[in-house]
Design brief:
D-Maltodextrin-Binding Protein, domain 2, two-stranded antiparallel sheet, alpha+beta, 7-stranded mixed beta sheet, 16 helices, 12% strand, 9 strands, globular
Length: 369
């Protein structure tokens, strides 16, 4: 598993994970769990190690892996993981949010089950906004500055806004991107209006990620920031006069993009498959998932997991975000659309182009990819 999920006693979430593993071992006397930490990507990363091990030392492969969506694509394409359709009961499937179960599936087949979700959110000062700013109009009318990760190379926030307007991209594994000119024009018109109103200025160009914009919020640089749920949840109990919800949209209908982390089973010794599934099933029990997620600062993508949270937990926030969540486009798609869209947005914020020119720039750059 990646380092951020390692079960260890020096963090609340790590200690909780460790405790759940020990409880499973105690209930299964002949089982001993060994955790290996491996970075997600790059040379010597998880997929490289699995591919090498599959041919060189199959008996040394792990039984369970923790992966993100990109690694799930690679693991499924290379036959490294087994299908879970026959193991996942209808009750389990029904308890998951639709986007979550779909994000762990490939070609309609469940290949993994998510245990942690992050998503784009808007965090705001309740002293500036008396109610959640759900529409762009409310944000513009406030005249308060807004910070979002404008330097994000994938431009995930602009992509989220584009999709919320009804824009389309392409199916997974497609080699091209199809852009809706109408939605793109509406999106870039919004940025022009926000710049004209003084809501967006060049300072937002300094931020490339949710953690960075959350830090800016804590430094009182803006009363509204677009960040990620994980950053907010880690500090929510300490943030005074602060609330969060789905990012504002043109029509006020909640819509956000989410990414998840998954458990998957490795295809190897079938006699060990049953024990591996029992461990995954144990870790995904609603109370276990909910308790760990709350301590780790993630959204648990099962309804009953949120129901297990104590009353003082940010239950309403979690329910709102998960209900509005949609699967984040894959990295290949974002690599095509993100750079030209981000460039257009930044040029508008700098006042270098108008909407018409920005739209043409995006279309031209995508068509030459």
């Amino acid at each position: 598993m990646p380092p951020q999920f390692e079960p260890k006693p020096d963090t609340d979430s790590g200690a909780e994970f460790l405790n759940q593993l020990k409880q499973f071992e105690q209930a299964n006397a002949n089982t001993k769990i060994k955790v290996r930490v491996k970075r997600s990507s790059g040379a010597g990363g998880m997929i490289d190690s699995l591919l090498t091990g599959m041919s060189a030392a199959p008996d040394a492969l792990p039984d369970i892996i923790v992966i993100n969506a990109r690694n799930l694509d690679a693991a499924a394409a290379n036959g490294l993981i087994i299908e879970l359709d026959e193991l996942v009961t209808p009750d389990i499937k029904a308890d998951y949010y639709k986007f979550a179960i779909e994000s762990g599936s490939r070609n309609g087949i469940i290949m993994s089950l998510p245990f942690a979700t992050d998503a784009l959110v808007a965090a705001y000062a309740t002293t500036a906004y008396k109610q959640s700013p759900t529409t762009w109009a409310a944000v513009l009318d406030s005249k308060y500055p807004v910070i979002f990760p404008a330097a994000d190379p994938q431009s995930i926030y602009a992509v989220q806004q584009y999709l919320a307007l009804g824009g389309t991209l392409q199916e997974r594994s497609s080699v091209s991107v199809s852009i809706s000119t109408t939605a793109l024009t509406q999106l870039l018109d919004h940025y022009v209006a926000a710049r004209t109103a003084g809501v967006l200025n060049n300072s937002t160009l300094d931020f490339a990620s949710g953690p960075e914009t959350w830090s800016a919020y804590q430094e009182l640089r803006a009363p509204l920031v677009i960040t990620n749920a994980h950053s907010y949840l880690q500090d929510a109990s300490l943030a005074t006069n602060t609330a969060a919800g789905a990012p504002p949209t043109l029509r006020g209908k909640p819509y956000t993009l989410a990414e998840s982390w998954f458990y998957a089973l490795i295809s190897k010794d079938m006699t060990r498959e049953s024990g591996a599934w029992e461990l995954v099933d144990w870790l995904l029990q609603p109370e276990n998932m909910g308790t760990w997620a709350l301590k780790a600062g993630y959204l648990p993508p099962r309804t009953k997991a949120i129901e297990s949270w104590p009353d003082e937990a940010p239950i309403d926030f979690a329910l709102e975000i998960l209900a509005a969540a949609n699967e984040r486009p894959d990295d290949d798609t974002l690599a095509l659309i993100g750079p030209p869209l981000g460039k257009a947005v930044r040029n508008i914020i700098r006042g270098h182009v108008n909407t018409s020119a920005a739209v043409q720039d995006v279309i031209q750059e995508i068509s030459t990819e």
